[in-house]
Here is the input.
Amino acid sequence: MPSSPSLAPGQSPAPAPVTRDRRADLVVVLAALALAFWVTSGMWWDPNSRTITVNSSDQALFEWLLAFGGHSVSHGENPFFTHLINVPHGVNLAVNTSITVYAVAFAPLTYLIGPPATFLVILTLNLAATAVAWYWLLSRYLVSSRLAAGVGGLFIAYCPAMVSHANAHLNWTAGWLVPLLIWGVFRLRRPGRAVRGGIVLGVLVAVAFSIAAEGLFFTALAVAFFLLLWALHPARRAEARAALPSFLRGLGVTALVAGVLLAYPLWLHFAGPQRFHGTGFDPLIHSEDIAAYGSFPRRSLAGWAGLGTSLAPNPTEENSFFGIPLLLLAVGCFVFLRSRADRAFRATLTALGVTAVVFAVLSWGPKAKWDGRRTDQLLPFGVLDNLPVINAALPSRLALVVAPVIGLLLAYAVDELRARPPRHRATGVAWAIGFAVALLPLLPTPLLTSVREPIPAFITSGTWQRYVSPGGVLTPLPLTIDVYPDGQRWQAYALAHRQGEFRIPSGFFLGPGGPEGRGRIGPVPRTFDSLMDQAGRTGLPPIITDGSIKQSLADLHYWGVETVVLADRVHGAKFDVDEEALRRTATAILGPPERVDDVWVWRVPPA
Here is the structure.
């Protein structure tokens, strides 16, 4: 029967010679780093001036979060709530992707090299660390072959979903957390380790919540579902029953430790000011197209060859996109392993297979969609979407659970083929060709990058300090939201370079104000920001009346804005911005501007 160990830490395979193991470890680490630098290579030429083309808004947000995190540490401010944006209400960062642990841990680097460069360092390390962490889990606990562990770890770290989320998502690319959490969970089954294991897992849970809360939730769901299926299998029932007391004690310690560490963030998340339920994104839009599972991603060799598709809601959410060859290979690996497995390992394979299928179906969202065409067929997620916490998740991201399952099947299959090679050489060649045909088209290509508008000298030189009182409110035009990220970029620069604080109305964040009490992106629009958005987006200055002037001034006074600033070049994350239309509109409301350095400045008259 097979030599493949079950998915349970603590059952390490017999070690190979130490020198050979270390050489293999080094090769995988170097391969992981090389691929990470390859994927992010477009930004390394000049991190301060280049941006990820398809998602410059999220990049600007994470850069701001890094700057704010360092500022909160050095100034003793609350890292989970801020009044620097969305004046006068502030923003509850505990319900946003606040990456608090990263912001605090990398604060010295942020002050040293700036938020954009720190963002790039973390993004690159995330990708490499994910490969290394999965390789570590596989090679130390799950398979005997270092080659098998390398194949599995590198695939999971650079699968289409991870490369897609490398388009600026520092939270989702922190995939190194998942194998550590899995290791921590299975470690609880060891007798006498409940307290120590629970403390370690509790700390890991707290770290994961502070970097990628949604990812932690998905990991917990997937691991719990897998364990339930595994424990109910007749071949594992006795083992599960024996391990249950120690496991439950460890989970109790985990809950206590994580609860203490996360008490305040959890209170803010569920009961604090500016909280909301649900999400600002439509689950119908952010659901996986069924056909996407057999399609190729855009940032891959297949996509470079013109075989990529646009079935994802946006380029950052290609959460499946495995391609038909890999799906066939995964099924082939499953059948092959099952044919050689003993009863105990079949329980593991069955639990893995069912978990992958269930999460794939859930990723299809509330209504089925095939090749871009939505049907009225209600799917399981449509029933679950009204449940608390689940209604805050994007269904398409549930597909992220499938990639590690495929990676495990690939690793197990390679391990079995090396331990018990096929009798006929042609069979081994066929397997090698199958792996090449399935994996080579998915090799990642570098992220698309472009030059973004520079931060004005008005900000970098500190001139702004003469136009805003300490802690006062300044706003760029257009007002800062996801498609106009300049305000938070300027603020991040000022914070990271210790120039002091200025606050801004609006901002890119999730907050209350959506339909039926759900969340929305940014605050509810008012007259002034709506007029500016219309001008910048269309290039057609709106008609300004006495009423709109009066209401615009009331909005500016509501926010406490002292100074309005228009840069010569405004960065639009999704479209070009017409600066001339903005200047004419602001002039019609506030009168002629003052030219200061490289910006236009309007002083807001007192109420």
Remarks:
- The first strand starts at residue 50 and ends at 52.
- The chain has two domains: 27-48+114-442, 457-603.
- Confidence is low (pLDDT under 50) at residues 1-15.
